[in-house]
Amino acid sequence: MDIGKVPNSILNEIVLNKIKVNRKEILIGPKIGEDCGAVDFGKDVCVLTSDPITGAANEIGHLAVHVSCNDIASSGAEPLGLLVTILAPGGTQKEDIESVMLEIAEAANSLNVDVIGGHTEITTAVNRMVIISTAVGKVQRDKLVTTSGAQAGDDIIVTKSSGIEGTAIIAHDNEAELVDRLGKDFVERAKAFIKRVSVVKEGLIAGAFGVNSMHDVTEGGILGAVWEISEASKTGAVIYKDLVPVEKETLKICEIYGIDYLRLISSGCMMITCKRGPELVKKLNSNGIKATIIGKVTGDGERKLVCGDRVLGIGESGTDELYKTQINSH
């Protein structure tokens, strides 16, 4: 199989179809598109998620914290704690692990999240450091948001812009090459996108506002998130390429590597569906979060991307565009 997340159709066949949720306390079990599991604890719901960092070589401590806490926030929940597993290759120095832990501590402190456990190991099973972070959060049961709750007629909203995380990773990992082509100031701006990858603030605001679904835009980018929300909710969608926000740094880097920013990993961008889109956009903007309506949820089951006078189908995501830059640059 190709590098990256296992395709959803295969995931269903070889993983999800082998799992049966038996306990009534489990409110959200494993499902295509769902970011989290959820367990009924009475008035409150415990929300859990787990993610590895495998596509980046720099700032992996920061990313490990934010990607898992972002998933918690996509349920409208407040992230509380993290379990962090570090797998490091042979030859790793103690200073390397210490540097990653300083990043983890800084990112966790910025979100008021505690590291409550984990595991650290040197192993020949990896050829570069891999971090798996498991986040735990809580939310009142009546405020729990799922990916699968989108309804026909909902506005589709995204926060910030497309390709945030991918832009930062590419700028860090291919810095020397990009400095030669674009200049140091440009690359430093692109690298700084790493500071925008949290969606916890917008997730909590949207959850309190009352929305039908949320999904952290990660591997597969904007189009992947549209497909996953639609698949989980059994709906269609139409989005307009001209409305999708994207920064000039992202556009230029994507042009250099011949990749599509709509399919580039985009942690820092939250996709939200709700009935009162303009009202939520106004609320997010008033809290310093850029938000844009890019389309609508439909009831016909078709997923469409409108590019000027052309209408293209949105299919299941393949390998994220990020991995193409890593292949092309080595």
Strand and helix map with partners:
Elements: H1 8-14, E1 26-28, E2 37-41, E3 44-53, H2 60-73, E4 78-88, H3 94-110, E5 114-122, E6 130-140, E7 155-159, H4 164-173, H5 175-182, H6 184-191, H7 200-209, E8 213-216, H8 221-233, E9 236-240, H9 248-257, E10 270-274, H10 277-286, E11 291-298, E12 303-307, E13 310-313, H11 321-328
Parallel strand pairs: 4-5, 9-12
Antiparallel strand pairs: 1-2, 2-3, 3-6, 4-6, 7-10, 7-11, 8-10, 9-11, 12-13
Helix pairs in contact: 2-3, 2-7, 4-6, 4-9, 4-11, 5-6
Describe the model:
With 330 residues, the protein is an alpha+beta fold. It has two domains: 8-143, PurM-like, N-terminal domain (60s Ribosomal Protein L30, Chain: A, 2-Layer Sandwich); 147-328, PurM-like C-terminal domain (Phosphoribosyl-aminoimidazole Synthetase, Chain A, domain 2). It has helices at 8-14, 60-73, 94-110, 164-173, 175-182, 184-191, 200-209, 221-233, 248-257, 277-286, 321-328, and strands spanning 26-28, 37-41, 44-53, 78-88, 114-122, 130-140, 155-159, 213-216, 236-240, 270-274, 291-298, 303-307, 310-313. A hairpin with a 2-residue loop joins strand 2 (37-41) and strand 3 (44-53). Helix 4 (164-173) crosses helix 9.
